[in-house]
Amino acid sequence: MQRSFKQSVSRVAVLSLLCAVFFLFPAFSFAQSSPTGLRLVTSPLPINIVTEPGQTVTTELKVKNGGTGPETLRIDLMKFKAYEDGGKPQLLEREPTDDFLDWVTFSESTFTLAPDEWKTVTATFAVPTTASFGYYYAFVFSRATDGELLDQKQTALVGGTAVLVLLEARVADAKREVTVAEFSVDKKFYEFLPATFTIKLKNTGNVHIAPRGNIFINQGSTKDIAILEVNSEKGNILPESNRIFNATWEDGFPRYVAKIEDGKTLMDEQNNPVLELKWDWNDASKLRFGKYTATLLLIYDDGVHDIPIEGVLSFWVLPWRLLIALFVVSLFFFIGIRSTVQKIWHKIFRKPVAL
Length: 355
Description:
This protein has helices at about 1-25, 320-350, and strands at about 30-35, 40-45, 45-50, 55-65, 70-85, 90, 105, 110-115, 120-125, 135-145, 160-170, 180-185, 190, 195-205, 210-220, 220-230, 240-250, 255-260, 260, 265, 275-280, 290-300, 305-315. By secondary structure, the chain is mainly β. The chain is elongated.
C-alpha cells in the first residue's frame, strides 16, 4: 500500500511538471523526454470546447513518437486545477465524485507508434443534460508498460506528457467576470529599460475565461510610444483563481540585456541573469527620459458583450549617470568657450600700455 501511494504521488508530481509548460505556452506543440527515454510531441495545446448540456462533442488528440524506437502508448484520464498564480496546472487523480471523467471515450486507448510517426486519437464527450459550467481534463500519454508492477526496491516514476482540455457546458446562469487584482511595475524609477509589468487577474466567475489586450505607454501628450501585448497566447484563468501575466517594455537606448558567454546566459548566485548595457547606436533616438504612463486595457467576453477592464500607473526613466556625464562634458565645454571668449575679448579691446 505504501509503495502504491508513492507511485501515485510520483506520477502526479512528474506529470504536473510536464503539463505546466502546456498551460503556460498554449500556442505551441511540445516534445518531452522522460527519464526512461520516452520522447513525445503533442498538438494542439490546450483544447477549448464549448457545448450545450445533452450534446455529444469530439476532439482530436495528436501525439508523435519523437524517439528512435517504436513505442506502445496508452491514454490515461486525469483532471487538473490551477496551481498558484503563474498559470501552471496541477494534475490530480480521480476522486469518487468526479463523474465527468466517465463522459469520455477514446477511438483507441492503446496503440503503437514507429519513430517520427504521428497518431490522431478521437476523444468523445457525451455531455449529460445536467452538466453546467467548466470541466478540466488532462489526457496523459505514457508507455503502456509503465503501469506494470516494479521490483519492491524500486519506486515508480512514470514519464509521459499531457494534453489539457477545457470543456464548458454553456448554461444561462454562467457567470463570466474578471477583475484586476494588481497592475504594477517592478520599479518606480529606472535608469534604463527594460521595465517589467505585472498584471494579476482574478476570475470571480464560475467558468474559465481568457482575457487579452494591451498596455499602452504614453508620455505627456505623446501617445502610444509603445504597445505591449498581454496574454497573446490566450491562456485561461480557471474559476475562483488568480493568474499573473507579465509584459516587458525594452525598446530603449541603451538597455539592459542578459549577458551571454559561450552561447549560455550568465547567472548570478541567486540564479538571476547577469545584465549588461547594450549600446546600439542605431537606436539612439530611443533614449528614454522623464515620466511615463502605462494604461492597461483588456477585453473579455461575458457571453453577451466584450467587457473592458482597465488599470493605470506611472513610472520614471532617469538615466542619471548619462545625465551626469553630459553635464560634466557641457561644463568643460562651457569653461573652454568662456576662456576662449575672454582671451579674444582682451586681445581686441585691451588698452595700449603708456610709455
